[in-house]
Records
---
Amino acid sequence: MVSSAGKMKRKFMRVVKYAISAFVIGGAIAPFLRATANEADQVSEAALVFDGVKPSEMRGGTWKVVYSSVEGPHGRVLETLTQRLGPYFLREKCHSTSLVLPLEKVGGPAVKGKRDMIVVGEVASNPLLAKYVKEGDVPKDGYFIRTLHEKGRNIVAIAGDGPAETLYATFHFLDLIAPSLERGMCGPAARYAGTFFRADKIPSSSYSTAAQTKIRSIFSWGHVIDDYNETLRALARARFNRAILWDDQLVVNAKDVVECAHSWGVEVYWGFSWGWTLSGKEGPVDFDVLADEIVAE
C-alpha cells in the first residue's frame, strides 16, 4: 500500500522533473527556433540564384560524372569533385551519411537513374565530351567550361588542353559555383534553395582561359612540409606547375613526394645546399631513392 503522502511526493517530483526538462529543452532549442524564424528570408534569397527558377522546380540527386581516365591528375579531378560536391547534393541534408559520387567511364556501363552529368577530360580522349566541346574551344595550355540544358537534362562540360589543365578547370568550376553550394546546409533553406545542382534548368554559359606563363614555380628552403599532399593540392589549385624543394640533403621519401606531385600536375626540381658536396650526401645510396628520370628533371 502507498500512503497519500507518498503519492503526493511522487506527483510533486514528476512536476519538478517535467519543469526541469522543459527548462533544459527550451533553453537548448531556443536558438534553433530563433534561427528558423529567419529561414523564410534565406529561402527567398536562395531562390534568386537563377532568374526564373522556382522552388517547385528544384531537383537533386540526379547527377553523375562521365570520365575517360583515372590516371595522374585525372584521378585528382574525380577526387576533388567527390570531396567538394558530395556533402551538398549526394547526402541527405543534416544527416551523417557517406555517399559516393556516381562515376561512369565513357564507353562503359551507364549509371542508371542519373540524367544530369558532368563530363570531364580532354576532347581527344573523351568522345562524349567532344559532343559538347570542340577542340578549337580549348586554348593551348588552358581549359574550357560549358554549362547547358539539353533534352531535359543539365550538362556541365569541363575540358582541358591536358590532364593538369583539366584539373585547373575543375577547381575553377567549383569556385564559380561555390556561392550557390554554400546556401543553407540544413532545414528548409537546404531543401528549397536554388543551388546550381538543384535547378531544374541550369543557365547556358561558357568560359575559357589559358596560362600566360608556361612555367609557374615556387620554392621552399630548409623547412619541413608536414603534409606534402595537401601542400601540392594547394599549389595545383593556385595553378603552379613546378615546385623547387631545397634542403641540406635529399629527403628519404623523395620518390613518394614526386609521385604525389605528378598526380597534381606539378613537376619537382630538387635543390640542395652546397654542403652536399662536403658531407658525402651526393653518393649513389642517397640518389637511388630517386628514379633516373626524376634526376634528369
Note: The beta strands are 63-67, 103-105, 116-121, 142-150, 153-160, 205-210, 217-221, 242-246, 267-270.
---
Amino acid sequence: MRLAAQAILPAVILFAAWAWTDRLVDGGAADHAARTRPAETVYSVTAVDAEIATNRATLRAFGEVVALESAELRVASPGRVVEVHPDLAVGGMVDEGATLVRIDPFAYSGALREARAQLKEAEAAAREAESRIAMGRSDLARAEEQLTLATRDLDRATTLRSGTITDRAVDERRLLVSQRQQSVDQARYSLEGEEARLDQQRAQIDRLEWTVEEAERALEDTVLAAPFRGIVLNETAALGRIFQANDVAVTLVRADGLEVRFVLSDERYGRLIAGKSLIGAKIAVAWLIGDEPLTYTAVVNRIGAKVASDTGGVDVYARLELPPGALPRPGAFVEVAVPDRPHPQSARVPTTALYGDHVFVIGDDDRLERIPVTVLARDGSEAIVRGPLKPGDQIVTTRLAEAGDGLKVRRVDLDDTGEARREPS
C-alpha cells in the first residue's frame, strides 16, 4: 500500500505541475492578445446643423456702368466766351440749371432792342392806319348823307318840273347828285385802301414779333445751362475763346441716371426667368476701387433686344439707386450679384460636405450615416441641396478619405474645416 502511494504521488505532483503551467501559458496568451488588439479610430470632425428653408444662390457677373441719358450742349449763338462755371472740368459735378458757359451778349442785346423798336414803329403805324380808317368811315358816312339829300332834292325838282322849276334847275340838281356820288365813291375807295394798308401793317407786326422772339431766343442761347444734375464728360470752354455756331462746348451725363450693363449666359438667363420675369429684380453692385468696394443697389429695368454675338449671352440693364456720396462713373468696371431662383425645402451646406450625390450626418453613437442629396445650385463655397435631411441634422463638413456608414467620429468646435484627426478610443 505504501509502495503504491509512493508510486502514485509523483504522478499526481507532475500532473498538477503540468496543469498549473498550462494555465499560466493560456492566461499569458490571452493577456497578450488583449494587449495587442487594435483600438477603434475616432475621427475629429466639424459639422453644421441642417436648416431646412427656402434658399437661393447668388449669380455673380461683371459689368459696366453706362449713362442712361447724356447731353451735348452746343453753341447756338456764336461769339466770345465771357464766363465759365468754376466746376466745369472733366469729372466735375454740376447742378441742374447752373450756368456753365456764357457768350458775350452785347450784339444779341442790341439786336433785340432794334427788333423791339421796329415792332413799336410798326404798331404805331398800325394805330395811325386805324385812325385814318375811322376818319375815312366818317367821311364816307357824310358823303352818303349828302348824296341822299341831293337825290331827294332832284326828285322834288323832277316832280315840280311842269310848274315853277325850269329845266336848267333840274340839270343843276342832277349835276350835284353826280358830284355827291363821286365823293361817296372816292371816300369808299380811300377807306378800302386804308384797310388794306392796315392789313399789311398787321402782317409786318407779325413778322417783327417773330423777329423779337428770335432775338430773345438768340440772347437766351448765349447762356449754356445744365439741363440736369450731371457729371462733366467733356468740355472745351475757356475764357476768351470764340465759339462758332453748333460747336460742342460741354458734354454731360445725368448723375442720377446711371445703369449697369452686364451679360448673362443663356443657361443663367433661363434659370433666372423660369417662372417669373427678371424685370424689377433687385441686384447688388460693387464698384471695386480702393481698399473697400463701394456697394450700390440696382433694379433690373430692361433686357437686351437680342443675344450679343461677341459674348453669346443676353445683355441685362439695371438702373442704379444712388445714395449721396461717391458716384460711379460711366465706364466703371463693377461686379454684380443677382439672386438666383428660390429653392424651397432645401439646405445650404459647405461644398466640403459633399461626397458626390450624398452627405454624411452624425447619427446614433456618433457614427456616420450616408444621406443622398441632390445639388440644386452652387453659391461660392456653399451648395444648396435637397434630400431626406431633417432640421438639426449634423452634417459633417470635414473631408474624410475613410468616410462611410458606421465610421466613429467626434464633433469638435472648429472655425474652419481641415483634415480629420484620428484618436484612439
Note: The radius of gyration is 54 Å.
---
Amino acid sequence: MKRLGVSFWLGALLVGTILLVAALAVVWTPHDPTAIHIANRHAPPSAAHWLGTDALGRDIASLLMVGAQTSMQVAFLSVGLGGLLGTALGLLASARGGWTEEAVMRLADVGFAFPALLFAIMLAAAFGPSFANAVLAIAFIVVPTVARVVRATANQIWARDYVRAAQAVGHSRLAITRKHVLPNVAPILTV
C-alpha cells in the first residue's frame, strides 16, 4: 500500500484545525464577534485579544472562528448540493441514453465552458451577496464534474452481466439504477 505523503498530512492538519475551530465557535468564542468597541480599535495582539482587533474594535480571533464556521457550512452544503444534482443528472443520462444523455452532457459542457468566477459575480449582482447565493454558485461549479464522472462510471456498470440479467428478467431502469448502479457509483463519489 502506498504511503501518504507529507502534503497529505499537512492538508489534513490544516482542514482538521479549521473544522475544530468551526466546531468550537458553535459553543464558545473569546469575545462577542459582533460587539463594537471603538476605544479598542486596531489594538495589537494581547492576552485579552489574541490576534488584536479590527478598525471597529471587534476581536479578530472571534471573527476568524465564526468565519471558519460559515466557510465550512458553505463548503459542505455546496458540495453536497452539487454532488446530489450531479449524481442525479449523471444517473439519468446513463440510464436513459440517447438524446437525454446527449442533452445532459451538453449542459455539462456549457457548465465547464462558463467561467465559475463570472457566474458567481453575476449571481451576486442579480440577487445580492448572500449565504444561499454562495452555496448555489459553488454547487453550479461542482455539478458538471460530478455528472460526467457518474455518467462514465454508470455506463460501465450498465454494460456488466448482472445488470443485463436484471434487464432480461424485466426489472425497470429505475429499479436497476437504484439497486445496482447507484451502489456501485457511490464509492466514486466519496473521492
Note: The first helix runs from residue 6 to 27.
